[in-house]
Every structure is written in structure tokens, then in C-alpha cells.
Amino acid sequence: MTGSYTPLVTFLEFTDSRQLMLRRFAGQLARLSVAETDPAVRASADSIFWPLDNQGLIVGRLLGLNRREVARTARIFSTLEKARRTTSALIAAGDRLTMHLARSGTGFTWFLSLYGAPALVGVQRFETEEEARDSAALARRQVAAALVSASSRKLHVAGTGPLSIDARGAHRFSFSHSGDPRLENEVPASNQLDTGTRG
């Protein structure tokens, strides 16, 4: 079908831990871990153990059939080898991935876990639980059929600075696909992504 691709896990490798896109994602993980463990806002009763060592520079991204970002890995990796090994295990897990919903502001978001460890987190916020659940179910089907990129795409600080954004070298990037475009560090276009191989 025209415009349809095999789902793909690709990797972004940052060059500085202070790059804003990386810091925002780490902040999302921190907020989600609190939302999941706080009984006042928890939408899942399962006990989840969030990683505490997100000190790396590599983030995995699940791209769907239309090459739009669907989810990101729940861990920030220190090496590409660890990132590829972990994402390959998630693909092999298939329907053993468990879906979870959590409050996100006035809406809902989701994540998938494997044996109590968060694996993938959604990048979009939804108004209803049903929409979030449908998105999570679709992501679980897509990750089971995904290929894994053999390399990472480096996001250099050049032109943007690690703590500030230079509008001349930045791209508009919506972190949550919520219609709120923000200036962000460079994100590769779909035609720059690796085709990848399974495993």
C-alpha cells in the first residue's frame, strides 16, 4: 500500500546530556513514573519499577506504518548495543507486553511494560481513556512486527547550543503531537532513517 512501511525502531544519539529534547523526554519519564505510583492519579493497579539510571544519551523511537513516531523507549541508553538488545527483546516479547494508562494533565497517556519494567511510552496525550487504550493496543501490534535499526542518528548541538535554541538551526518539533509545535534540536526527516534489520 502506498505510504505504508514496516514499523521501525530507530535510535537518536544525543551529544550532550543538556540538549533540550533529551531533557524534556527525561522529564516526561519522571512525570509518568510519579503519575503511575501516586494512587490519586494512578490508572493501573500494577506495581511498576521505573529505571533510575537514565544517564545515557541514546533514545529508541518506534515509528509506525506511516513513519510517524508512536512511542519511545522507557529507558535512555548508554550504548547503542544495549539499546538494540533491549528493543529486540521487546519485539520478541510480542503480546507479553502489558498496557498501562496514566493521567497526563487533563488527559491520558499510556506505556507498555514487560515483567513489571516499563518498556515503551506513548508520545501523545489523549482526551479519553478509550483513545489512549486504542493507541497502546496499536503500538503493541506494531512493535511485534518492527525492525530494529542497525545504527543511530546523532543529534549534534552545533547551531543550537546545549541549553538554548538558535532559531536558525532548529526545527519545529511537537513533543506530544498535541498541536503544540516547539523549537527543538534537529530531528531527522523520514527519508534519513535507516531501513534496519530485525534482531
From TrEMBL:
Listed Polar residues bias regions: 188-199
Segments for region (Disordered): 176-199
Highest taxon, organism lineage: Bacteria
Protein name per UniProt: Uncharacterized protein
Species for this entry: Agreia bicolorata
Biological classification of the source: Bacteria, Bacillati, Actinomycetota, Actinomycetes, Micrococcales
